[in-house]
């Protein structure tokens, strides 16, 4: 499993650095997420103080998401030319600055420009992690360990939702500049603590099979690397299927994450703090779904996470339908529907990430996840501007039907990848 790790001292050193890298990048990405989705908590206050409509807020969400997707895609290629830890630290620092400036702004134009730029620098978070982690995690363990790591999304959102729900009762502006200040400190810690590869700390690189030799991309011709990316990503039909399916997964996810608080407040009549705890439960059970779905994939499906994704997408869509259908029912019924859908939505998202990394191989994992990401964040066209406009014109209940339909479409798209192998390493010449 691990190349040339024959004595216990070297093995322990590798495990130490593996855990250290996963833990620190986990905290870092949780911080990225904590200062990405705080806008949803601040929206009621922004509407009240500045008179901004839901459609205008939806435009903020859409442009931020589209810019994030473009950035994540572009940085999937750019990151290979830089040290991953530098990329992560710089990205988080710039995100923090954007949050602080946004929190002190009042003009719609300035806030819009800042939030769009914020989407770009947020896109500097995932690609370096997608490149870095496969260097520390063997392919046969990737679904399980990446599942554990991907809980950073959920935990970052939970901390952000709960903490910012309380901060919002004081001032919506504090929802941005207080987390932004903390993020600056975290960015510095990441730069000091992590390293990019095992070889950078005197260890041998991971071996992934007799047909695949780890190479240094800087020593390879750029044309050869482009051909490799072309073959494993852009000419790989399964990467495209995964990418398109990711669009539908993210529609379900962001419909709740971006609009959940204001939805529960206006549609369900809940207090902001109570709505915050309900949305936090959605994220917590999402983390459980990530862990369990990753374990099930490695244990019972031989690493074929896309098979599990089809099942979880169908179940997630069903519970979203129940949430819509029972909105006038007692709050605990809505809670059950939310946590069950969160379990399946986040489980699907995590498996799509690990599937893209394995199918494209670790050398092309950042580029593959860049393509997958740009499709995912294109969903903000639906969950941002379109959803906000529909709510302003019609109502919550009618608008929510659109979200339910997209979930079932996602399950259908994933069936076209049923024959995909667990990894793409056998295609590497």
Span between N and C termini? 20 Å
The CATH architecture would be: Up-down Bundle
Class of secondary structure makeup:
mainly alpha
Tally of domains:
1
> Mind describing the biggest β-sheet?
none
What's the level 1 CATH class?
Mainly Alpha
Indicate the mean pLDDT. Answer: 83
- The 3D shape can be described as globular
How many strand units?
0
Q: Topology, pairings included?
A:
Elements (H helix, E strand, L loop, with lengths): L7 H27 L4 H12 L3 H25 L5 H20 L4 H15 L3 H7 L9 H29 L3 H20 L28 H13 L2 H30 L5 H29 L4 H21 L5 H30 L4 H14 L1 H14 L2 H19 L15
Please, could you describe this protein's structure?
This protein has 429 residues and is mainly alpha-helical. It has a single domain (8-196, 224-420), classed as Growth Hormone, Chain: A. It is built from 16 helices and no strands. Helix 1 (8-34) runs antiparallel to helix 8 (174-193), helix 4 packs antiparallel against helix 6 and helix 12 runs antiparallel to helix 16. The radius of gyration is 21 Å and the shape is globular. Residues 209-217 have low confidence and may be disordered.
